[in-house]
Amino acid sequence: MSGGGEGRGRQPLVAVFSGAGISTDSGIPDYRGPAGLWRRDPEAQKLVTYGYYMGDPEIRRRSWQMRRKNRTLHAEPNAAHRAVAGLERAGVPVRVITQNVDGLHQRAGMPERKVLELHGSARSVVCTGCGDRGPMRDTLARVEAGEEDPPCRQCGGILKSATVMFGESLDTAVLSEALAIAKACEVFVAVGTSLQVQPAAGLAGIAADHGARLIIVNAEPTPYDALADEIVREPIGTALPELLRRLGGAAGGGPAPDGRG
User: Is 130 annotated as a binding residue?
Assistant: First the structure.
């Protein structure tokens, strides 16, 4: 696997593994966490559970109404997302592995090819029959126009958000690439994640086992704290930009811009 440092052989590869905590400053609540909506409300969880979704038209109708009200598509990147993109623009080889489906790393300026979305993307829809994909906004426009459960226009199949629902497995190709990055990186920054959901959380341990400097930026303790070289409990919006500025300087790229200039 290429670490992305073409022509920069002395530059360390930095892997940023992000969870819901990096996006809360953008107004996106933590739906999947221990105190998130899906854990607190089993009925709401059905809306994002594959078996219920595929087998019950009423669940699908309710799911589309939920998507209409979802803040994700209207959210903007915050200082933490901009700092990650700024580090990459400063010339440091960066790969993002994210558990989030909001697309905010890309909106902040990270190249698409350098972002791995373990749980898919809420900005797209996919047909469960033929696999056709399209923008979520286009399908939501159909819902707004009165289609309660819009079918695929290619084959008539059931459309769903291009996210990994409960009851679905992670994409093996994406997970394999994430594993390769964890093994190859020199620095692994886990930010805004409890590191409790496997197999994704195990990437932190794999990185540490392969000699990476493990840095955890999270408000609460995680199962991997004992392996960490550095633990940061400060608010992500200020702590991560400062951390990445230090990493950028140590890598010889100078202070990483925060993306606002």
Answer: yes
